[in-house]
Amino acid sequence: MDVGFIVVQSLSGLASASALFIIASGLTLVFGVTRIVNFAHGSFYMLGAYIAVTVVPWLLEIDRSPTLFFTGVLISAIAVGVLGVLMELLLLRRLYKVPELFQLLATFGVVLMVQDAVLKIWGPVDIPGPRAPGLRHGVEILGQRFPAYELFLIVIGPAVLGLLWLLMHRTRFGILIRAATRDREMVGALGVNQAMLFTGTLFLGAALAGLGGALQIPRVSASSQMDLSIITEAFVVTVIGGMGSVPGAFLAAVLIGQLQAFGVLVFPKITLVLVFLLMAAVLVVKPWGLLGRPEAAAGRAALPEGILAVRGFGRVEKLIAGLAIAAMLAVPVFGDAYTVKVATEVLIFALAAFSLNFLVGNGGIVSFGHAAYFGLGAYAAGLLVTKGGLPMEPALLAAPIAGGLFAALFGFFVVRLSGIYLAMLTLAFAQIAYAVCFQWVEVTGGDNGVVGVWPSAWAASRQVYHYVVAACAILAIIALRRVVYAPFGATLRAARDSEQRADAIGIDVRTHRWLAFTLAGGAAGLAGGLYAFSKGSIDPTLLAIPLSVDFLAMILLGGIQTVMGAVAGAAAFHTIKDIFMPLTDFWRFLLGASIIALVLVFPRGLAGAFAGWRA
Amino acid sequence: MAGISFTRRAGLAAGSAIATAALIGARGSAAQGAPVKVGELNSYARMAAFSVPYRNAIQLAVDGINRAGGVMGGRPLEFVFRDDGSTPGDAVRVAEDLLTREGCAFLAGTFLSNVGLAVSDLANQRKKLFLATEPLTDALTMAQGNRYTWRLRPSTYMQTRMLTEAARGRTTRRWAIVAPNYEYGQSAAANFKRLITASIPGAEIVAEQYPALGRVDAGATVGALAQARPDGIFNVLFGPDLTAFVREGNTRGLFERRFVLSMLTGEPEYLIPLGDETPEGWIVTGYPWEQITDGPHKAYIDAYRARFNDTPRKGSLLGYVTAQVVANLLNKANSLDSEVLVEAFKDLRTDTVVGNVTMRALDQQGTMGTWVGETVLRGRQGAMRNARYADGADYLFPEAEVRAARRG
Amino acid sequence: MTLLAVEGLNKAFGGVVAARDVTFALSAGEMLAIIGPNGAGKSTTFNMVGGQLRPDTGRVVLAGQDITGQPPRQVCRMGVGRTFQVAQTFLSMSVVGNVQMALIAHHGRTRDMVADAARLYRDDALALLARVGMEGEADRPIGELAYGDVKRVELAIALAAAPRLLLMDEPTAGMAPRERAALMQLTADIARGGGIGVLFTEHDMDAVFAHADRILVLVRGEVIAEGTPEEVRANPEVQRVYLGTSGHKAALRARRAAHG
């Protein structure tokens, strides 16, 4: 390898890093101040690109000058900033009082709505943007040609970093941002207008995402899948750098840019995984990222976000639970074949969601990668049946074991962290597991997956299989619910409420969390195994981020503060999706709108609202 | 023999009658009675650039068919369209919905290969016919083929072979491959490695890049490819990845004095976004609809443009041909029984707007072809030059390979 | 008999020495207060005994067993109960649930996945609440209690482990004056009645001089004086560097309170 190539390849990495940093800096600022995990950040990036490919060509009609090009880019960034403000005013502002995770759910609703809005406004065809006037050419560097525009990008990343530094250190707004990042409640105590601060931060964050998107138009065409392609990477950068740290995001972006630029030479197939491997490694060594700080000491007495008082079922609850189980058992008798199918899936998702809420609601362990254990259970069952030649029964037994074993393996590292870092490490492990299933084509069939995962002959009919699922899922939920009420469940809540207190009364918090993670992984694995046999196939989407997000949406819709909320949420989410999908191509918009409506109307979830009504 | 030739002729006649009727909008006796429902599931939300023109064209064809008297002796044909959610899990549920609640006689459609395979396996389990229209994976008709699954569009293997055969006679020895990292890309690359030496003896692969789908790091990828100093490049990227790759490659001079074979790039879906950046001289598969000047194909194009105020895409053509093949199948089978339909599909010949399409019984693969030509820049838009229609019948998997693959 | 022996503890953070050669001992049933100005190393010393911090050098011996550097949960199992400067309780639980939780942990049943946690050790928990005078509030959510009452419950939680030694970090911080005296009296009664040693830090000199058997004075990480309240009060160095006039006043007030 000659020097020229190494230099140019490294410059390519820097150009990507610059673009990534601009986007990630907005995400990290918003998180630092508002503690919102803003899934919609990728949507802002996409909107920035779409607005730019609309505005910039129009400006260039007037005069093909670099000034007008960059004016257009800035206009796009500001327009996206305004959209960020709108999201803050119309949505997030109503949600600051509710658990932080609900804001995450609301932003997820925004993602779905923006996806379809973009399709509606700009159409499904990718729109290429114009090249930047004056920067179209290539520049000769050590005998290699390098795009001038990318040289410009390399400069603009540090420039944005510098401007942000000035803003943070030389303006009152910036100083407030830093103060809020360090200690959010202190700002409230100082009498600062918190609402204005949050609105301003959302503007800045969204505008940075929009700027990142607008700056990309000479390189990539605006397409309706840009949002999802950037958001995980932006999160990875933010987490590696340390949530809330802008210089950290810069450092992480440079690291990732170089890793990808040279990674493609050595591992041309797994560059994406390299990024997650890096994140996992960084988090295991530095639990708060490279330049992040530990979350402010938990000295304050705040109600935990999760299951509060666990009460036994009253008469009404018993009646509802009884009716729900009776309805599930009666479906094959009275419902048509399709209703049976949907009911089967609701039961499976209810179990998966319940196992997730066992972690999130009961243990305060927020997992963004719960689908991993669902999917690994499905793969264990599916591969044993198709490649191992085993019948369904032992394969179904293997599903929870596989889910549990992998949860134990990953959980060993996960429980060493807390908060958003913990969540991101679960995501990293889920992506690594996904990548293995995706890449190990000989065994897993790659992204095509493996087909032929059908139940044994006696359970082959939809009706009988429904009873198999009902028996497994309902019993597993009852068992897991028992654990919630048992000393083990109480211990997890204790550790969630006050880790310090739990430690001081002799509880080994980490080990208990590890056990809980394993148990929940096992339950999710069982659900995954049941799912595989209901679909007849396994494939990597069963471990993928969208399914993990669906599980989160289910428990949040249901309400993480109640024990049974996850079940209600799974049923509601699946039903809403099933109603809207056949209705229109724009079902994602309606699904997103429903989620937002439910979050606004029932800010504690469906079961939370029910509990409130009972009380 | 007599029986076969009779049915063939009947099918041909019916097919051409329908096509003609559809095209000239002849008002025969309009179809009456209970509609024959076909469940069509596709990625309408996620792959709208392809699937919406596809659905439009089906609708266009179906309207014509019904005006001309429908199918199976006068029943109207109806496609029930559903989004497949772009995941196998959702798709299988939607397929069940179509088969049970909607009462569809059989299934058609799907875009992504993993979705197609999952639906194909469901069809096999439920013993219902499935006409996979868009998924390209070879597995669908080879290793994982089953009695109930048929595919219309030329597979990855067929399209790769069209390109490698177009390279016959070249002296390009050192090849680099760039393909999206998922089944379609991997299997196109594998086919290419297998087939290129047949066209160019001594060809070798000097670099391979597999960026993640939708996330190409174009700068790094182009750099890595250029570093290997290939003489030729086999490209499988499409969509946003392709645009990014082409722009980066153009600026860095990757394509200068290099021979490029590129899958699907000539399809309007992917050519339009390239705009004035379309590189010249690539050998591509695609759909140069503007070069169709006469016959039923031209009539369909005009009808499509008139009705939807849009130019046709590859998806539109596929949708139109799908409806023609389905109508012909129903007329020939004259039954909605899955087994009868499967038997009727065997070697079914349909006279479509692209000419004769036969569903080969051996691997249940259709002989619909595609166009192979050279990219050229016309004004600010890319186009295809010297394009010729490559009939899929000439590029099917060798029979021995099919038998070996489908045995297990 | 010596319950707790602390020998030559040293701890530095970066270049800052937080504790230098801290040595002291504590007998069963004895109340030992650690006082000193802010930043004197009280909390550091305290956390090294409780297991939250590991000393650089030195030993902590509890009833003859070396517990140096053991994590808090291990220290707890050796018979050390603890309260915090800001009360640490389980906010999602009821008052009695908090104590039950501590009892479940004490009896090593935290991994029990079958029993009904709400019924386990309820009577024992109520008895402990009765000892701190909180049995009447047993079924209220702990978040609803006044802060002074929370501190009492926290004491009951600490007592659930049947400790030989209680560590109380600023037990009266954030409480109203009247509540303070009552809590300290309660603690003293329980400690003396049960032969439990109490090590506490405190800002409130009234509380210290009224209830401590002995006082340890820390300044800049070093023990500068140790003895009975009278001895400490009389120590000229203590008067000079720490108590000052306000200390005198506190001492006077304490004496008056004791006589009144």
UniProtKB/TrEMBL annotation, chain A:
Protein location: Cell membrane
Keywords in alphabetical order: Amino-acid transport, Cell membrane, Membrane, Transmembrane, Transmembrane helix, Transport
Its membrane topology: Multi-pass membrane protein
GO molecular function, one term: branched-chain amino acid transmembrane transporter activity
Matches recorded under Pfam families: BPD_transp_2
Assigned GO CC terms: plasma membrane
Listed transmembrane segments: 6-31, 43-60, 66-92, 104-123, 148-168, 189-214, 234-255, 262-285, 319-339, 346-375, 395-415, 422-441, 464-484, 514-533, 553-574, 586-613
Any one Gene Ontology BP term: amino acid transport
InterPro entries, sorted: ABC_transp_permease, BCAA_transport_permease, LivM-like
Family: Belongs to the binding-protein-dependent transport system permease family. LivHM subfamily.
Protein name (database record): ABC transporter permease
From TrEMBL, chain B:
Keyword Signal: yes
GO biological process, one term: amino acid transport
InterPro entries per UniProt: BCAA_transport (IPR051010), Leu-bd (IPR028081), Peripla_BP_I (IPR028082)
Keyword Signal annotated: yes
Domain Leucine-binding protein: 47-374
One Pfam family in the UniProt entry: Peripla_BP_6
Keywords: Amino-acid transport, Signal, Transport
Signal peptide: 1-21
Family according to the record: Belongs to the leucine-binding protein family.
PANTHER family: ABC TRANSPORTER SUBSTRATE-BINDING PROTEIN, LEUCINE-SPECIFIC-BINDING PROTEIN
Protein name (database record): ABC transporter substrate-binding protein
Organism for this UniProt entry: Falsiroseomonas algicola
Upper taxonomic lineage: Bacteria, Pseudomonadati, Pseudomonadota, Alphaproteobacteria, Acetobacterales
TrEMBL record, chain C:
Example GO molecular function: L-phenylalanine transmembrane transporter activity
Domain of life: Bacteria
GO biological process, alphabetically ordered: D-alanine transmembrane transport; L-alanine transport; L-isoleucine import across plasma membrane; L-valine import across plasma membrane
Residue span, ABC transporter domain: 4-245
Species name: Falsiroseomonas algicola
InterPro entries, per database record: AAA+_ATPase, ABC_AA/LPS_Transport, ABC_transporter-like_ATP-bd, BCA_ABC_TP_C, P-loop_NTPase
Keywords: ATP-binding, Nucleotide-binding, Transport
Keyword Nucleotide-binding: yes
Name of this protein: ABC transporter ATP-binding protein
One Gene Ontology cellular component: plasma membrane
